[in-house]
Amino acid sequence: MQYGFYVNQTRCTGCFTCVVACRDWHDVPAGPASWIRVKTIEKGRYPDVFVAFLPVTCYHCRQPACVDACPAGAISKRDQDGVVTVDRELCLGSDKCQLCLEACPYDAPQFGPEQDATMQKCDLCLDRLAKGGKPVCVDACPMWALDAGPLEELEAKYGDVTDAEGFEYDAELGPSVIYKAKRDVKGLPTKKVFVTPRR
Q: CA 14, CA 85: separation in Å to the nearest integer?
């Protein structure tokens, strides 16, 4: 079984409630590390403009590049649900190694500001999943733009679209995410792209 995310990009308003809820639930202090970020995509010029928002997190890939990249064996993929986890006690730290971050095209591995910070990232709220709940970002979203669960169930409910504005699906890695994408029907050129900082 593979767990993953569903993102309804047409509903996301860029309110950052998911970011705040995640930080609060996991006690992630203020700073560069954020287990979920929100990307803002702006296109065109007035009066022809297009804006979309994209929550960005760990996508618990079917073949995660970070697992193979880690020389300490600190990152693993769980057999029972496909969730990619990190053992921070085994992590070599940001001063010695950031190979996981270099390997991940989605910038999922996060490092705090402290010296030799160990890697941290989304674990799909395993504590909540164990009790039959949803990740805190899903429950916190006021626009019902997020869902999570077994990927087969999400695909049966929402379809199997794997591309969205601001997201590039890597078929080799197989990120466990599906979308309802917000489409730029006019094909406007990208003006600016903002991402909440990770450092």
A: 27
Please tell me whether residue 57 adopts helix, strand or coil conformation.
Answer: coil
Task: Give the CATH number for residue 115.
Answer: 3.30.70.20
Which residues lie closer than 8 Å to 58 by C-beta, 6 or more apart?
A: 35, 84, 106, 108, 121, 122, 123, 124
In tens, the pLDDT along 137-192 reads 999 999 999 999 999 999 999 999 999 999 999 999 999 999 999 988 776 666 54
Neighbours of 95 (CB within 10 A): 10
Angle at 187 (CA atoms; ends 182, 191), nearest 5 degrees = 85
Whether the Cβ atoms of residue 38 and residue 54 lie closer than 8 Å to each other: yes
DSSP-derived secondary structure for 147-187:
EEEEHHHHHHHH-----BTTB---TTT--SEEEEPPP-TT-
Provide the token pair at 8. Answer: 């309804």
pTM of the model: 0.88
- Domain range spanning residue 33? 3-195
How many domains are there within the chain?
1
